[in-house]
Predict the structure.
Amino acid sequence: MLLLTLGALVAALGFSLFQVPYNIAAGGVSGIGGIIVNHFTGVSVSLFYLLANIPLLLLGFFYLGRWRFLLTTVIAVVLFSVGTEYFPSILPQYMSEYPITDNVLLAAIYAGLIGGIGGALIYAAGATLAHRHRARPHHPDQDRHLAEPDLSLRGRRYHPHSRHRLRLEHRPLPC
């Protein structure tokens, strides 16, 4: 839970420090909320982010992991929304220089770096920020094919204590 909280707040901090001051669009739901909805209607990015993720959370519940996924992702989405709502108003009071850089390119690079660190912490906790779901259902054996090579002995699975020579077979990744 600590990784989840820390990751959501770090991602919100990167968004608030570097993307909000320069109106840099993020990808996914927060980008749509930041550019289209906020610009034309004035609705807060954090409120739109929270509301627009509800259908994505329902899809994620049915396709990506049921209750554990839903609980951790709801916590991450709520913390990110709260952080993006309050950080832009709090940070200028406590920082001597806001925004940190005057260069828009550096702001985009820093936003990607800090947002990536926050996203990695959230993914390590077993959640997502809901707007970055996989497009297809997750199968339990799917990650095994990506993580380990197929080591076989003339059609048999390799056992680590076997004295037989190994033959590495290359299989195409499942789609």
In short: The radius of gyration is 21 Å. Confidence is low (pLDDT under 50) at residues 132-155. The helical segments are 2-19, 29-41, 45-64, 66-94, 104-124, 142-147. The longest strand covers residues 150-153.
